[in-house]
Amino acid sequence: xxxxxxxxxxxxxxxxxxxxxxxxxxxxxxxxxxxxxxxxxxxxxxxxxxxxxxxxxxxxxxxxxxxxxxxxxxxxxxxxxxxxxxxxxxxxxxxxxxxxxxxxxxxxxxxxxxxxxxxxxxxxxxxxxxxxxxxxxxxxxxxxxxxxxxxxxxxxxxxxxxxxxxxxxxxxxxxxxxxxxxxxxxxxxxxxxxxxxxxxxxxxxxxxxxxxxxxxxxxxxxxxxxxxxxxxxxxxxxxxxxxxxxxxxxxxxxxxxxxxxxxxxxxxxxxxxxxxxxxxxxxxxxxxxxxxxxxxxxxxxxx
Length: 303
Known about the structure:
By secondary structure, this protein is mainly α. It is built from 11 helices and 2 strands; from the N terminus they run H-H-E-E-H-H-H-H-H-H-H-H-H. It has a two-stranded antiparallel sheet with strand order 1-2. A hairpin with a 3-residue loop joins strand 1 (about 70) and strand 2. The longest helix has about 50 residues, at about 215-265. Helix 4 (about 100-145) runs antiparallel to helix 9 (about 215-265) and helix 8 runs antiparallel to helix 9 (about 215-265).
């Protein structure tokens, strides 16, 4: 049992390290954006701007549960329900299979529920953004051609649309109207919508605001490239759908058999889960499954 607990702790630690690395890369993109457009942006490598380890962990935890609870909006009902469901499933799985400390199962369920809530929220935002972004480019381009400045063009677009992009433009216009630095306003906006097309769009707006460059042609090219990229993404998903589904089914089959073994062959299940010599089979199963899925995910990211 102690070896299994140790293996689980090692697995959770590796997953936490991967999560911190991915989130750090996303935040670094916003920092690079700020350094490109604002020479006065503070150097985060300076010791004065570095956070302590405790504050860094606290901020990571707050960010992890941003779709469950915030000081501004309180508890999100959807996020809270997701955490409750994940905690219940972890407790049930722990009771049927592992028999660990229930408190450990609840902690894993809470953090896993926060991850699921973030994933669903990001998926919904991305879908809404990709749906409305081409239309927003057309509206802003038309407003600029008619002689409006960037702020008025964003305001017209926000009034003509609904969804996450319209709300984001309203936030940007409000911040610009009260005199906030455009580079910092756009950097904060990019943190909320970390998409490649939106990055180039904000960069174009900043160049236009700071240097007075014409943005009409840039927006036109960005609109055409966005349309082409969207069609290519759909084509790629259609071509690789069979491969992706096959990989998911292949990864789920071993766990399905392990679940069925609990009821079909309880003796073999007890031997694998609780016998010291049988646990080596479980270790081999978990390690080989993890390595195989890591290889598949790595290959799928290259498509």
